């Protein structure tokens, strides 16, 4: 048997990318193609009075599309179907699409864009989570709340009610419980894929629509277009092209661009290419949901968690999009890798007048885990335990249940992971060393860590509802074609599917062909999100290939142990005698998995990856700048399919999360992103990142291919809290809001200094 | 743009003579991608920040989105399409990127490869600091840069070993 | 050409600033006069009076100059902090000056070195001390028919202790939030400051010489009291604002802290 799984085989997509041959959507030109642009609102909320088209371009040559051209009910199909495809009467956020234009000359249509003005009567708008909850101005539904969740385990209220009694008994020498509260905030984050969003749409002679573009989920786009235009499903075709990064930003948003491009294509009768320019992409498309989390935690005298009362709030922007699902994942991860008998999570996603927030790698978990892991350090300090000792006393163990009632069937082994991570990062020695440094040094160093997990696949019954399918076909000459809707967006989907398939069939890598995701050709394997591609879809690839192999074996054409040549001959024989050889596999939940959508209880995820991340930082107290000097990322992932690709996922995720923690500040002005340029929205360069040291452990998951669990989002969860904890260790100031910009940190340092120098106060006052 | 008359610009691209008639301020990036059909050079930002549009002009790395084509008149331009030694002969840098995972989504890769090639031409064995500085103008969102650095280190070794830097 | 139609033609060198402004629509479409090929405006030359740098000299060329590296190292430090390699290959010192952003990286170094600009037009040649060149935000002592031809740096006496620190939004490819360039020379016994230059970027509508801060230590022994007096005086020399990258409060604090840190260690 070959055994490609576990090796860093050459990447199937590699050559095209390093030679410039890979074709992304903007590299393609179709005959007669028009360039499309979007005219957007400049205001946060208002009623449209008039749309003016100033002189300066030949308007008769330009295709113009407004809300009137959108089939009723002018709503983009997603979850609640509340988002207009084009604003009709009311605009609810800056950059909301109002008019679409198309023309063969790209420069001309750009000029035309600037000549369209939207006149409006302003309406009151909401720009904070608190304002949304206060409800004085209602901008969505009846109460500005997209979705709420309540997770209730044990009886948190009773614990808090009983505390005065416990305190009295403590005075009498009994158990003393402590309440520790904290509030934590995370800002919006822009995905900042280096390839901007783009779609090409064309109408087909049969009245259908074909869409090509930069996207993660061809079937999401397909479903949206079918519903929007009422076109028969087989007449709508969505093809994923080479995609230059997604990170969730190309999960749901491309459906809107596809709808726009399709509208222009239908009206003009020509193919339309709609590519966003960078400033537009940054300002108008989805970002990570900003969050605010409040913790109230009760621990006993031994530092064991007794109760966790958590309020988890997300700012969803102007329309619902995926907020309920982001909220769901954030809620389930809110109590982390710990056991606590009483947990209450009250979660809400609210509406504000900002462009809708959406999917971004991690999807709610980076937000709630930042709060949790910062808070755990705060709690540890309050009860006089070291951060690691506190964690050890509270890690969830095999056989215990999580806050939503999921029994840990496999051992999380967090205690052992923690020990190993601290060893790999030389944590104890460095803590001692940094403590001994001359306090007059202006650069102060600190160590910090986070312990966490990330559930792979769709939450609860999500995978059931997706009912993903993979098909495989053997050709007469023994090559096998894999048909799946999973997209390659940089993470190496095609390569790992090739490895899995080759191993499952006992043939060579070169015998496998991964078919381009095209809804006209591949079945719906679900979206490329939620860390599911390897674990869920890869498993379907494994099983579908197994079906072909078994068919040949049970047909007497192939022996259990066979060579590649024997396989090829068997395929030829099957084709000659029986015709095409196909296999397929549909998702089945692993046995014994149960989730209740009503009570929000049960097995939330099929598998969790478990991790401990450790950060070493230097804080320059003169400028408030933080540098990460070293970063250790240790995770247990079931099985590493391809070490280089897996390592690359973690490194890339850690880098992106360092941006989230320290640099990527979205400046909001009246609901609009004011720093929508790569000059002013700061992602890390090659000079800003530490060595990122990645280590894996493997505890095979029975229902993943080769034992693999999902890892794509995991790295986003543990970096920011590890860094924030390290900063507190370095300079003694708690930083509970990210990004931890130098402005915020210096302010905190100066306040802690007393700003010892009175002249600094004078200087600041001037 | 339409009031200014078009000019004829002659340049050598990947060793081949090219002639275009365009507005003098048309970006070199657009001339390469549209008039010359070389779509390997990418537009990531249009503001000279991301480096996806990097090309070599007279041997120097520049952001082609900030270069008016008139300023490339008479120049020798190298794009990603001109880096490989031939149809089956990758540059050491390209091969190293494949082997070491230096490319994930690939959109930054053309610019990153060019920046790496020019770095190695100037400094045959760059240290870590020099590699980071040499690539500081090329943003990558996928890799975290670690494996790009490894690829450059590897290419530095095989680059000198192979002399001309072209490997199979 | 500039003389024939003043204001019509905008000089264009490497394009690293102008192209960005053009793309974002911040510049009216106009006519650009390409200077890139004017070889006589490029290059670093040693003279008896010091050094001459052609306005079209790029940052890469500045970095490659051994002469500048030896005699005027702050200029190379500034050049190294400006953009990545691609920007350094095309950005020019003349462009950096003429774009007149208060956040530009080379101007503070130029002020420390008492730079002088040579401006040319059909009417002749004019020399302007660089510290008088910027008159206000984007207002320069530069007529519409003039070009910056050269930057002259006078020879320097030995013994200057120099310093340059840019605090940007990240370690590379960053616009400065605060930039300090400074130098001082002590007397023979090391007892008092003979002369000092303190210049800052990003803390006023133009690059500034912090003359009050300088006055607080010029001729003084460099003790704790003098250091604090300089830091205190600095507040009078600068007028930072809140903008998209940072805050007035941060800039004020950091400017003072950078100065204090340098003076304590110099």
Number of H- or I-type helical stretches of chain B: 5
Q: Give the largest chain-chain interface (CB within 8 Å).
A: A-B, 56 and 56 residues
Amount of helix of chain B: 25-40%
Q: What is the subunit organization of this protein? A: heterotrimer
Distance between the termini of chain C: 49 Å
Tell me the Rg of chain B in angstroms.
16 Å
Helix share, percent of chain C: 25-40%
List keywords for this structure.
heterotrimer, A: 766 residues, alpha+beta, 7-stranded mixed sheet, globular, C: 266 residues, Uridine Diphospho-n-acetylenolpyruvylglucosamine Reductase, domain 3, Enolase-like, domain 1, 5-stranded antiparallel sheet, 4-stranded antiparallel sheet
Give an overview in words.
The complex is a heterotrimer of chains A (766), B (168) and C (266). Chain A is an alpha+beta fold. Chain A has a 7-stranded mixed beta sheet, with helices on both faces. In chain A, strand 9 (198-203) and strand 10 form a beta hairpin. In chain B, helix 2 packs antiparallel against helix 5. With 168 residues, chain B is of the alpha+beta class. Chain B has 5 helices and 5 strands, in the order ββαβββαααα. In chain C, the strands form 4 sheets. A 5-stranded antiparallel beta sheet of chain C has the order 3-4-9-5-6, with helices on one face. Chain C folds into 2 domains: 9-154, Uridine Diphospho-n-acetylenolpyruvylglucosamine Reductase, domain 3 (2-Layer Sandwich); 161-265, Enolase-like, domain 1 (2-Layer Sandwich), CATH 3.30.390. The model of chain C has no long low-confidence stretch (mean pLDDT 93). In chain C, helix 1 (18-23) links the parallel strand 1 (9-12) and strand 2 (31-34). Chains in contact: A-B, A-C, B-C. Chains A and B meet through helix 1 and helix 17 of A and helix 2, helix 3, helix 4 and helix 5 of B.
Quick overview:
The complex is a heterotrimer of chains A (766), B (168) and C (266). Chain A has 766 residues and is an alpha+beta fold. A seven-stranded mixed beta sheet of chain A has the order 3-5-1-12-9-10-11, with helices on both faces.
Write the layout of secondary structure elements.
The complex is a heterotrimer of chains A (766), B (168) and C (266).
Chain A: H1 14-19, E1 34-40, E2 46-53, E3 63-65, E4 90-91, E5 97-103, H2 106-114, E6 116-122, H3 129-134, E7 145-153, H4 156-171, E8 178-186, E9 198-203, E10 209-213, H5 218-229, E11 236-240, H6 253-268, E12 272-275, H7 278-284, E13 291-299, E14 305-315, H8 323-333, E15 342-350, H9 365-382, H10 387-392, H11 414-424, H12 427-435, E16 443-456, H13 462-466, E17 469-474, E18 480-483, H14 493-505, E19 512-514, H15 533-554, H16 564-578, E20 581-586, E21 595-596, E22 601-602, E23 607-620, E24 625-636, H17 643-663, E25 668-669, E26 672-673, E27 692-697, H18 715-731, E28 737-738, H19 742-753, H20 758-765
Parallel strand pairs in A: 1-12, 8-28, 10-11, 14-15, 18-19, 24-27
Antiparallel strand pairs in A: 1-5, 2-4, 2-6, 3-5, 7-15, 8-13, 9-10, 9-12, 13-14, 16-23, 17-18, 17-20, 21-22, 23-24, 25-26
Helix pairs in contact in A: 5-6, 8-9, 9-18, 14-15, 17-18
Chain B: E1 7-13, E2 16-22, H1 28-35, E3 54-57, E4 60-63, E5 76-78, H2 92-100, H3 109-122, H4 128-134, H5 146-162
Parallel strand pairs in B: 1-5
Antiparallel strand pairs in B: 1-2, 3-4, 3-5
Chain C: E1 9-12, H1 18-23, E2 31-34, E3 44-46, E4 50-54, H2 59-64, H3 66-71, H4 73-80, H5 85-90, H6 93-99, H7 106-112, E5 116-121, E6 124-129, E7 134-136, E8 139-140, E9 147-154, E10 161-168, E11 176-186, E12 193-201, E13 208-209, H8 211-217, H9 224-237, H10 248-265
Parallel strand pairs in C: 1-2
Antiparallel strand pairs in C: 3-4, 4-9, 5-6, 5-9, 7-8, 10-11, 11-12, 12-13
């Amino acid at each position: 048997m070959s055994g490609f799984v576990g090796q860093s085989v050459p990447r199937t997509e590699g050559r095209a990318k390093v030679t410039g041959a890979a074709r992304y959507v903007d590299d393609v030109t179709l005959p007669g193609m028009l360039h499309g642009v979007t005219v957007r609102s400049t205001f946060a909320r208002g009623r449209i009075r008039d749309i003016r088209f100033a002189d300066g371009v030949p308007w008769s040559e330009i295709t113009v599309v407004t809300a009137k051209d959108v089939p009723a009910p002018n709503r983009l199909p997603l979850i609640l179907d509340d988002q207009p495809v084009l604003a009709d009467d009311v605009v609810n956020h800056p950059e909301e699409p109002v008019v679409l234009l198309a023309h063969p000359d790209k420069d001309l249509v750009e000029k035309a864009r600037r000549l369209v003005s939207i006149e409006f009567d302003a309406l009151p708008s909401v720009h904070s989570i608190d304002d949304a909850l206060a409800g004085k101005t209602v901008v969505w539904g009846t109460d500005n709340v997209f979705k709420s969740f309540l997770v209730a385990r044990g009886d948190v209220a009773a614990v808090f009610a009983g505390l005065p009694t416990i305190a009295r008994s403590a005075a009498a020498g009994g158990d003393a419980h402590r309440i520790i509260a904290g509030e934590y905030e995370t800002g919006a984050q822009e995905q900042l894929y280096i390839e901007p969003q783009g779609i090409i749409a064309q109408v087909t002679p049969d009245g259908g629509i074909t869409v090509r573009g930069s996207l993660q989920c061809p079937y999401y786009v397909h479903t949206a277009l079918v519903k929007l235009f009422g076109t028969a499903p087989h007449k709508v075709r969505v093809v994923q092209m080479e995609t230059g990064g997604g990170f969730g930003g190309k999960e749901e948003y491309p459906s809107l661009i596809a709808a726009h491009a399709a509208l222009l294509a239908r009206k003009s009768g020509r193919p339309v290419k709609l590519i966003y320019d960078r400033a537009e992409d940054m300002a108008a498309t989805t970002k990570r949901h900003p969050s605010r989390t409040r913790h109230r935690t009760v621990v006993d005298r031994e530092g064991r968690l007794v109760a966790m009362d958590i309020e988890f709030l997300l700012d969803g922007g102007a329309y619902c999009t995926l907020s309920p699902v982001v909220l769901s994942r954030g809620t389930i991860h809110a109590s982390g890798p710990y056991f606590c008998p009483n947990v209450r999570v009250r979660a809400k996603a609210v509406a504000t007048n900002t462009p809708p927030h959406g999917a971004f790698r991690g999807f709610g978990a980076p937000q709630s885990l930042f709060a949790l892991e910062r808070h755990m350090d705060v709690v540890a300090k309050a009860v006089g335990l070291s951060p690691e000792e506190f964690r050890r006393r509270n890690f969830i163990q095999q056989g215990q249940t999580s806050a939503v009632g999921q029994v840990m069937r496999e051992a999380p082994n967090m205690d052992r992971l923690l020990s190993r991570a601290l060893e790999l990062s030389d944590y104890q020695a460095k803590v001692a060393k940094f403590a001994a440094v001359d306090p007059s040094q202006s650069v102060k160093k600190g160590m910090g860590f986070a312990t966490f997990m990330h559930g792979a696949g769709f939450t609860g019954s999500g995978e059931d509802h997706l009912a993903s399918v993979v098909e495989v076909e053997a050709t007469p000459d023994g090559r096998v074609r894999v048909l799946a809707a999973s997209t390659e967006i940089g993470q190496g989907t095609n390569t790992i599917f090739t490895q899995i398939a080759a191993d499952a069939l006992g043939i060579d890598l070169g015998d496998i062909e991964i078919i381009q995701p095209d809804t006209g050709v591949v079945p719906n394997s679900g979206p490329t999100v939620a860390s599911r591609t390897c674990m869920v879809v890869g498993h379907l690839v494994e099983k579908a290939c197994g079906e072909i192999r078994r068919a040949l074996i049970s047909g007497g054409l192939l022996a259990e142990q066979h060579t590649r040549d024997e396989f090829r001959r068997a395929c030829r024989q099957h084709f000659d005698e029986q015709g095409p050889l196909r296999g397929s596999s549909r998702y089945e939940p692993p046995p014994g998995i149960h989730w209740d959508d009503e009570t929000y209880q049960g097995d939330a995820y099929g598998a969790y990856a478990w991790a401990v991340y450790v950060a070493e930082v230097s804080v320059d107290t003169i400028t408030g700048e933080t540098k990460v000097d070293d970063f250790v990322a240790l995770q247990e992932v079931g099985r590493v399919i391809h070490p280089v690709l897996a390592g690359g996922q973690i490194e890339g995720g850690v880098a992106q999360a360092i941006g989230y923690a320290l640099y990527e500040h979205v400046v909001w002005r009246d609901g609009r992103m004011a720093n929508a340029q790569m000059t002013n929205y700061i992602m890390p360069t090659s000079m800003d990142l530490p060595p990122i040291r990645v280590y894996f452990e493997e505890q095979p998951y029975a229902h993943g291919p080769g034992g693999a669990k999902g890892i794509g989002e995991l790295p986003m969860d543990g970096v920011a809290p590890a860094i924030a904890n390290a900063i507190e260790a370095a300079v003694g100031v708690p930083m509970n809001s990210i990004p931890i910009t130098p402005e915020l940190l210096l302010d905190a340092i100066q306040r802690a200094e007393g700003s010892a120098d009175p002249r600094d106060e004078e200087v600041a006052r001037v | 743009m339409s009031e200014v008359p078009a000019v004829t610009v002659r340049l050598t691209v990947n060793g081949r003579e090219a002639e275009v008639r365009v507005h003098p301020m048309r970006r070199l990036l657009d001339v390469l991608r549209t008039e010359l059909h070389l779509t390997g050079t990418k537009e990531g930002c249009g503001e000279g920040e991301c480096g996806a549009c990097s090309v070599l002009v007279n041997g120097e790395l520049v952001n082609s989105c900030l270069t008016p084509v008139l300023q490339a008149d008479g120049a020798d331009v190298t794009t990603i399409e001109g880096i490989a030694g031939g149809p089956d002969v990758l540059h050491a840098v390209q091969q190293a990127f494949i082997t070491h995972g230096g490319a994930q989504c690939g959109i930054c890769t053309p610019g990153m490869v060019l920046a790496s090639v020019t770095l190695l031409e100037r400094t045959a064995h760059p240290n870590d600091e020099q590699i980071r500085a040499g690539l500081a103008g090329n943003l990558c969102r996928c890799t975290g840069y670690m494996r790009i650095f490894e690829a450059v280190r590897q290419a530095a070794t095989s680059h000198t070993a192979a002399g001309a830097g072209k490997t199979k | 050409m500039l003389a024939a139609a003043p204001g019509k033609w905008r000089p264009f060198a490497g394009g690293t600033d102008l192209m960005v402004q053009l793309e974002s629509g911040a510049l009216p479409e106009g006519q650009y006069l390409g200077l890139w090929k004017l070889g006589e405006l490029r290059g670093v030359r040693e003279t008896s009076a010091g050094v001459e740098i052609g306005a079209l000299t790029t940052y890469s060329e500045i970095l490659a100059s051994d002469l500048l590296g030896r005699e005027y190292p702050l200029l190379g430090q500034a050049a190294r902090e400006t953009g990545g390699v691609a920007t350094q290959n095309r950005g020019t010192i003349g462009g950096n000056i003429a774009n007149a952003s208060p956040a530009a990286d080379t101007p503070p170094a130029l002020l420390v070195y008492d730079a002088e600009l040579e401006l040319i037009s059909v009417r002749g040649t004019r020399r302007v001390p660089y510290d008088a060149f910027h008159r206000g935000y984007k207002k320069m002592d530069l007529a519409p028919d003039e070009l910056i031809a050269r930057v002259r740096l006078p020879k320097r006496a030995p013994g200057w202790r120099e310093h340059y620190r840019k605090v940007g939004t990240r370690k590379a490819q960053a616009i400065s939030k605060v930039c300090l360039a400074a130098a001082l020379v002590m007397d023979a016994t090391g007892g008092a400051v003979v002369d000092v230059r303190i210049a800052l970027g990003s803390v006023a509508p133009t690059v500034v010489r912090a003359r009050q801060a300088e006055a607080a230590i010029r001729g003084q022994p460099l003790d704790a009291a003098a250091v604090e007096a300089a830091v205190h005086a600095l507040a009078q020399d600068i007028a930072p604002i809140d903008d998209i990258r940072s805050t007035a409060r941060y800039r004020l604090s950091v400017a003072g802290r950078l100065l204090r840190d340098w003076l304590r260690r110099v």
